[in-house]
Automatic annotation (TrEMBL):
Membrane-topology descriptor: Multi-pass membrane protein
Family from the record: Belongs to the DoxX family.
Localization (cell): Cell membrane
Transmembrane stretches, start-end: 110-128, 148-165
InterPro entries, sorted: DoxX, DoxX-like_oxidoreductase
Name the UniProt record assigns to this protein: Oxidoreductase MhqP
GO cellular component: plasma membrane
EC number, as in UniProt: 1.-.-.-
Keywords of this entry: Cell membrane, Membrane, Oxidoreductase, Transmembrane, Transmembrane helix
């Protein structure tokens, strides 16, 4: 049984590495678009203009917060500060999913599918941690305790809910 558990543990760690790399790299790329205009992105001023149109106030601060939360995906991919960085990504994707919600589920119609899947995957990483094959695993980082992931995810979710509440009230008054 010990050999089977060892194989299962290694498979789990490789699975978390795979998930972290895909989710983290995707989030990082979107954050880099927002913050620096990389990958044909709008940069911070273009992102702020878009945030303004979507009802996020203050728009520039919202753009920076979204960009930094997504750019933290680079940390997720490396497995550094994974639980906190993943919680930030989950919160950003909660807000993005809410923006796309009126268009239904499927992404080909501008729906919430893409941000919802990234958000759920980010939340899962906040809860599970990075696995052994990570910077956190190598250095035994204290932020990788389960309670940190739960607390970070709860805090990020409450923060995102507050932002969405303000957005809803701002757009209702427009």
């Amino acid at each position: 049984m010990s050999g089977e558990n060892s194989t299962r543990t290694k498979a789990l760690d490789v699975g978390l590495l795979t998930l972290r790399t895909a989710v983290g790299a995707t989030l990082f790329a979107h954050g880099a678009q927002k913050l620096a205009g990389w990958f044909n992105g709008p940069g911070i001023d273009g992102t702020a203009a878009g945030m303004e149109k979507m009802g996020f106030r203050p728009a520039k601060l919202s753009a920076v917060a979204a960009g930094v939360s997504e750019a933290a995906g680079g940390l997720v991919a490396l497995g550094a500060g994974t639980r906190v960085a993943s919680a930030a990504g989950a919160a950003a994707m909660l807000a993005a999913a809410d923006v796309h919600r009126p268009n239904g589920f499927f992404s080909q119609n501008g729906g919430l599918e893409f941000p919802a899947v990234l958000g759920v995957a980010s939340a899962a990483l906040a809860l599970t941690g990075p696995g052994r094959y990570s910077v956190d695993g190598l250095i035994g980082h204290r932020l990788e305790q389960e309670r940190v992931g739960v607390l970070a995810l709860a805090t990020a979710t409450v923060g995102a809910a507050g932002v969405l509440y303000r957005r809803k009230n701002a757009t209702a008054g427009s």
